[in-house]
Write a structure and sequence with these properties.
Distance between the termini: 58 Å
Helix content: 55-70%
Number of strands: 0
Order of helices and strands: HHHH
Structural class: mainly alpha
Length: 100
């Protein structure tokens, strides 16, 4: 699983790169113990918005998206349960005819 870095670490990494551009992105990433592509993404995010977005666990951008995902899981589970009940009902209707 990928390691989660807090916002301050990411901002410090961007500042480290800005202070040590002579090392290049790859050299700075190695010194910080992070991947080249990781540092590149943080630099891009910082250049574009002046900040680095940080998501909490679950990687949901907002509480609304987290709730939507929970409701979708709940709906999927309910639909799966309904499908099982329909199959059981069909089985008993077909198999139960010899009991009469």
């Amino acid at each position: 699983m990928a390691k989660q870095h807090d916002k301050q670490f990411k901002l410090d990494a961007v500042q480290y790169y800005q202070d040590h551009k002579d090392l290049g992105v790859r050299g700075c990433a190695e010194n910080l113990g992070i991947g080249y592509s990781t540092l590149t993404k943080w630099l891009k995010d910082f250049r574009e918005s002046g900040d680095i977005p940080v998501r909490g666990s679950g990687n949901y951008a907002s509480d609304e998206q987290k709730e939507i995902a929970r409701l979708r899981r709940e709906l999927r589970d309910a639909q799966d349960a309904l499908d099982v009940l329909k199959k059981q009902s069909t089985f008993w209707e077909n198999d139960g005819s010899h009991l009469s």
